[in-house]
């Protein structure tokens, strides 16, 4: 497998309301463990749509792993400005990930 698409729950669906919630570390650890195993089997790209929660956490893990592995991150948001209604802290995280991703292209050019 060369390409993996990651999707998952939003933080609110997991009753996580703060970015420093200790449960996030467990989720990221599980993602990291699985991603490392897949990279050792030939994984080259991780693709997300950039939604809050599992997708952003997976992107953060991928960027951390880039220091040790040859892995690429692609972000395909469903539309431009998808973060316009998000809490500010998630908007900042998203913008940092967009700037560090290897490829970013919205699926629909335009807002809501």
Automatic annotation (TrEMBL):
Superkingdom: Bacteria
Gene3D superfamilies named in the record: 3.40.50.450
Pfam families, A to Z: YpsA
InterPro entries documented for this protein: YspA
Record's protein name: SLOG family protein
Source organism: Tigheibacillus halophilus
Lineage: Bacteria, Bacillati, Bacillota, Bacilli, Bacillales
């Amino acid at each position: 497998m060369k390409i993996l698409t990651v999707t998952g729950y939003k933080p609110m669906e997991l009753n996580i309301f703060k970015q420093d919630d200790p449960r996030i570390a467990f989720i990221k650890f599980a993602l990291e463990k699985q991603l490392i195993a897949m990279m050792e089997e030939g994984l080259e790209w991780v693709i997300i749509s950039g939604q809050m929660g599992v997708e952003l956490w997976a992107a953060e893990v991928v960027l951390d792993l880039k220091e040790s592995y040859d892995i690429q991150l692609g972000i395909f948001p469903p539309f431009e400005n998808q973060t316009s209604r998000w809490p500010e802290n998630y908007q900042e995280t998203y913008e940092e990930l967009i700037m560090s991703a290897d490829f970013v292209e919205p699926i629909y050019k335009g807002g809501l």
